[in-house]
Amino acid sequence: MPTTPNANIPYLTLDPQLEEQIAADIRTNAMSALAFKDEDILRREDLPNDRATLARPAFMRDVEKIVNVPAYNRYAGKTQVFSFVNNDDITRRGLHVQLVNRVAKGIGRLLRLNTDLIEAIALGHDVGHTPFGHAGERFLSQCYHQHTGLYFNHNVHSVRVLDELYPRNISLQTLDGVLAHNGEFACQTLSTSGASTFAELDAAVAGCTADASTIKQLRPATLEGCVVRVSDMIAYIGKDRADALQMGVLDDIDVFESTVLGKDNGRIINNMTVDIVNNSYGKDTISMSEEMFQDLKRAKRQNYHLIYEREGMLEDASNVVEHMFGRLYERMLEDLRSGDEASPIFTHHIQPLVNTSQTITQEAYLEQDPNRIVVDHIASMTDGYFTSIYEKLFPDETYEIEKRGYFANL
Questions:
Q1: How much is the pTM?
Q2: Which of 46, 87, 286, 409 could form a disulfide with 190 if both were Cys (CB 3.0 to 4.6 A apart)?
């Protein structure tokens, strides 16, 4: 299909009758009958201090818990797409989760869903992500699989962070949305899974760890989770293009093709939002039109070809970074098995974890598979910490990572 100039793709608008209905809903604060109700929230423990109040509603408690774990702070130091770049205008993972939250709450507001639940899922969905984005996730999973036959996936690890490493009694509905958020798998219609117990959540987590293909079968248990999942794609497709233009990876937005989605971030957010609301209002699924779905799939393919296959600035360093993951993994595993308490895995990971987790003891944590502990440590690292610890532990190793500085173009 020939390239369509971006200016020729209009900003879509809501169906006029639907717009009137939604405006009336907002005026009267009418909620969808399909919205998840606060009173149906389920936690592992029914603790008095976790019960909803007017001042602290059910899922806002989850939001407050999530933004106060150390993993949330570290979003700011983790790659979204572009690694080894000094550029304060390039999206980091911390901004990405805010963008997902903003898009998802916008859709949820129009569909009259539970926006507090949406916010909790959106802000927590990537807390288990590795340094160096999806390349780092792939390298860490390779190391873990070689030693255990199991797989690392950031969505599964996000649940582990919120449910086990920093157990704050997060709700089932939030954890389920986090687990099933992977927006890499585009669907024209997302239906809910019907899952309603922690036993089902735990089984899904175990299944994804044992078989990586299981992730493709995940579906959120709530419409709110479905909204976050599709918003993950909406938030990154256009923003990653804007970053690629900023970095000089792309010269022109019109290298992309589109019919209804749009090519730039503003049109993509608007047009996806409008199309989803037009096709989902009052329904028990989150859906988009066939034309939008086909355009979305094309947009994702083009992003992968023109941006993600090169992992931004990681393309020239990927082999070095993969090597670094392997060496660091082996070193941390060796230090853990030898009980070297001067090692960073003790001083920078285990001891701080014990101090902030509120429930984990060092003795109990060390009873787990050492590989699992090493994965916890490496996944928690920011990009900067990863490179710093590597230089500290392997000072004599010669490797070259080209980092684009602030003045590279001068």
A1: 0.95
A2: 286
